[in-house]
C-alpha cells in the first residue's frame, strides 16, 4: 500500500486545497492510504476528518519575522512538532509528503527531509509566504516539486530551487467544478430570474466589507438580491428581507451559491479568487491591507484585475462601492468580458495536475512495490 502524508493548516485556505488534491489522488491511486499531519489545536482536525482522512496532531508554533514574547515558547513547539512529525512519518511509512503551507507545515517538511521522504509543496499566493520559502528548500533537497499558482512566483524563490518549480494554478475542490445554480436557488428560496450579488468576508467575516454593505445596502438591493456572508463570529443587526439574505457562514452550499451569483464582492484570498475564476464570476475585490498582512491579497487582486476578471477597490468607501456595482450591474457586455477573463485565468485544474504528478513520482512507484520510502 502507498502511504502519502499531507500537511498544512491554520486556516481553511491551507486545508481545502490540500483536500482537493487528496480527492484526486484517491481516484488515481485506488487503495492508497492518505493521512494528514496538522496542528493539534484549532480547526484542522475537524475539516480533515470530515473529508475522510486520518489526522495526526502535532504541536505547532508560529514562525515570526519580528520579535514577540511568544517567540521563545513557539520555538520549543516547532522543535516538538519536528520530532512528533518525524515519528509519525516513520511509523506510518510515508512514501511522500505533500504540504499546503501554513506555519504548521514546516516541522513535518523538515522531518520528511531528515528521513529522505520527498517533499512536494504548493503556494497559493502570488508571492510565497515564509513557510513556503522554507519548505521549498526541503523540496529541492529531496527531489520533490514546488507547485505555484502563478508564473511570477518563481522569482521570489531562491535560484537553486527553480528547476523544481512547476506552475499548476490553485487546487479547487471538485464541488466547485460541478456546482449547480439550480440547487443554490432552491437553498436560497429564489426564483430562476434572481440576480445575485454574493458578498464574502471569509468564515470570520470582514469588518470593512460588512460596514460597506451596511452603508450601501439600499442601493445594492435596487440592482441585486444580496447574499451576505457576514461572519460566524459576529452579530448582525440587519434583518433578512426579500432582497437581502444575511448568513453567518455558508459552508456546504457555497459552491452552488457562487455558481448562481452574477457577481462577487469579497476579499482576495487565494482560495476565493480561484474559486470565482473557475466558475467565471466577475469580481469586486477589497484586499486585506495594513500591518496585519504581508500584502498577498493585494497581489492576488492585482493579478486578476490585470487579467480583466476583477475590479479592485483599494480604500473603498460606500460611494465607490455603489458606483462600481452600478456600473457593472448596468453593463452586461462588461460583465461578460470579465466572466470570460475569469475563466481564462482559472482554466488550470491544479488539483488534478498536482495529483497526477504525485502519483507518477518515483517514491510513490517504489511505495506501490515496497510500501515505504525513507529510513
Protein traits:
375 residues; alpha/beta; seven-stranded parallel sheet; six-stranded parallel sheet; 45% helix; disordered C terminus
Radius of gyration computed on alpha carbons: 21 Å
Spatial order of the strands forming the largest sheet:
3-2-1-4-5-6-7
Task: Give the SSE order as H and E letters.
Answer: EHEHEHEHEHEEHHEHEEHEHEHEHHHH
From the helix content, strand content and strand pairing, which structural class follows?
alpha/beta
- In whole angstroms, the N-to-C terminal distance is 17 Å
What report would you give on this structure?
This protein is an alpha/beta fold. It contains 15 helices and 13 strands. The chain has helices spanning 12-28, 44-50, 71-91, 106-115, 130-141, 174-177, 181-188, 207-223, 254-260, 270-278, 296-306, 318-329, 332-345, 350-359, 362-370, and strands at 3-7, 33-39, 54-58, 96-99, 119-123, 146-148, 165-167, 196-200, 225-229, 244-247, 263-266, 283-285, 310-312. A seven-stranded parallel β-sheet has the order 3-2-1-4-5-6-7, sandwiched between helices. Strands 10-9-8-11-12-13 form a six-stranded parallel β-sheet, with helices on both faces. Strand 2, helix 2 (44-50) and strand 3 (54-58) form a beta-alpha-beta unit. Helix 3 crosses helix 4 and helix 8 (207-223) packs across helix 12 (318-329).
